[in-house]
Amino acid sequence: xxxxxxxxxxxxxxxxEDVTLDCVYETxxxxxxxxxxxxxxxxxxxxxxRRNSFDEQNEISGRYSWNFQKSTSSFNFTITASQVVDSxxxxxxxxxxxxNEKLTFGTGTRxxxxx
Amino acid sequence: NAGVTQTPKFxxxxxxxxxxxxxxxxMNHEYMSWYRQDxxxxxxxxxxxVGAGITDQGEVPNGYNVSRSTxxxxxxxxxxAAPSQTSVYxxxxxxxxxxxxxxxxxxxxRLTVT
Lengths: 115, 114
What we know:
The structure holds 2 protein chains of 2 kinds.
Chain A: E1 3-5, E2 10-14, E3 19-21, E4 24-26, E5 32-39, E6 46-52, E7 59-61, E8 64-69, E9 74-79, E10 88-96, E11 104-105, E12 109-114
Parallel strand pairs in A: 2-12
Antiparallel strand pairs in A: 1-4, 3-9, 5-6, 5-10, 7-8, 8-9, 10-11, 10-12
Chain B: E1 4-7, E2 10-13, E3 19-25, E4 31-38, E5 42-51, E6 54-57, E7 64-66, E8 76-78, E9 87-94, E10 104-105, E11 109-113
Parallel strand pairs in B: 2-11
Antiparallel strand pairs in B: 1-3, 3-8, 4-5, 4-9, 5-6, 7-8, 9-10, 9-11
């Protein structure tokens, strides 16, 4: 069975600090996909990134970066120079290779950026 | 494009009542799904469909029915509402392929069962 663990329930940092959100996953599949979604206070779910299990390159998009390590089954998300607009709940998710039906979410990390 | 739309945005039901949450997408996506979001539990898959006429159960299907008669619509029916079904419900859609695409989520329906 698939499982995604986000051990950090809530994190608060002062604006402009860097922050890393942890995500650890479990799967028996050799091919799988990992995702991060953002849920701002307005409630919608915003897609941030998808990574397949064959691509272990780290990715950077502006102030966001992701570190995928198969050896530790982790897919961590770092926000550099945090801003108040980054305040949200962040979800890590995992899906099997062929089809989206088994998208498994972690319980989320609530990030608060203090001005 | 409207993307994924859900109606209603808010609903209050009494225990035992039935209702249908509506979901529609205009992106011609084959795959659609329903999730519920509860505090501290993330999102959990209720039912999903890989195309018109094909549906299957997710992690928490009990108390819910779905059908998929068209590509665009995927309604979720609560047969006899219970307080345990108080939750925020999200519908999502994505194309189907050999890989796993991002799922496009609707704005959610907040349901309260009293």
